[in-house]
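[Automated response] Your request has been received and processed.

Submitted sequence:
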Amino acid sequence: MKHTFEPREKGPSPRLRKVAENIYQYSGSRRSDYARFRHKGQCIIQALGSRANPCTSLPEAKRLLREMKNDLDATEQTAIRKNFAQIITEFEQVLGGAKATLKYKKRYLKQLKSDFPVPMTTRVGEIKKSHILTFMAIFKEATADHYNHVFTLVRAIFDYAVADRSIAVSPVDGIKYRKRQETNKKLIPT
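Generated structure:
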């Protein structure tokens, strides 16, 4: 008994069905959409949406694909792979300021390395706003000035990561500085 072997055509898996340009639909047990395209010579195949909420509609898939391409244009592939420890180390090397300023910045960088809620090996792009808020909660009893000094340093680290093109958007965006408490002022009689 002879078996005939038919070579498969080049291209995506037979379970992936092309729905639109660069968008494919997986027809397995979980229906979800995938992006398949080339960016700077590299073939990128990535699921659209998250595991918990996979993308299943074409308009949403097109929007997510557009966002993915914009993020890739805003970041560099080698810089995306940097973890948080590498960004902090690079940031330490470019720190500037007076001697006393450098002293407190290095002290808080050390505390950031030891007390940050995710491991330092986490990629910078995976750090979320909730991680920053969790770290800043350590300083909830501190004065507003103290809190704002630390927050300025954290903001500067993520601004450095954006400038380095490791991330497209800083997770610190949208977090506000703490306002100073009003102190009783002496009234001067007139």
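Summary generated for your ticket: The CA atoms of residues 108 and 150 lie 7 Å apart. The helical segments are 58-74, 77-80, 84-93, 99-115, 129-136, 144-163.
If you did not submit this request, please reply to this message.
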